Amino acid sequence: MKTTVNGISIDYRDEGSGLPVIFIHAFPLNQTMWDGQVAALRNQCRTITLDLRGFGNSDAPPGPYSMDQMAADVRALMSLLNVDQAVIVGLSMGGYIALAFYRNYPDAVRALVLADTRASADTHEARRRRIKSAAKAEQEGSGAIAEDTVPLLLGRTTRETRPSIVGRVREMIQANSSHGIAGAQRAMAARRDSTYILPGIDFPVLIIVGSEDELTPAEEAESLRSGIPGARLRVIENAGHLSNLEQPEHFNSELIEFIGSIEQA
User: Fold this and answer.
1) Which CATH superfamily is domain 2-121+192-264 in?
2) Is the model's pLDDT at 128 over the cut of 90?
3) How confident is the model at residue 63 (pLDDT cuts 50, 70, 90)?
4) 44-72 burial by CB neighbour count: b if 16+ within 10 A, else e?
């Protein structure tokens, strides 16, 4: 479905009923990365996904983008769908946006799921790599970014044994616009450090990380857990950075248990 938020067209899905759960996708993918989670949860709760600006079937306006702007897009979509408060699920860049969302709209968050992500800002070296990648996207297209990022996003087990997942991730990346990819890379490079907001989180938080995630390894997840009072941490074995795609059954079981505990509270 399509709607207009903050002056751009956003593509989204809204399935099921009950507790709203909003899924924010990773870079440089789109909302279909959550297909397995929507299928598992739509009979239990209201599942909402969206293509962020610059990705999938949403508009890719000229930059600069920012994590705060993407969070504002999510909040505007919530308003259009008459959702006052939701469980926010974010993976990788989606986690950065989820933390920006909490920083800007704390009353709209019922709970958080932070998967394969971090609260800290980029190091100088990471920022330099992102700026270089943004320029490459503009010069060489999304196919070149797919070649660079697929080996980083997926764990060794997936790369060696699940070619269908490798192909699916590559196709998602290649389908995105090069300037949307560039805009998001620059937005992540410029993102604020969110570490300071962690101690003030006073609602349920689930942190998930793939055991083979080399981009945001288990130590990053443990740092998040230790910074958020009462947060629970779950490690997904044989998964890399895209733990929800690589081991969906394990990811879904953790998500269902967590959401069930919220509904019973």
Assistant:
1) Alpha/Beta hydrolase fold, catalytic domain (3.40.50.1820)
2) yes
3) confident
4) bbbbbbbbbbbbbbbbbbebebbbbbbbb
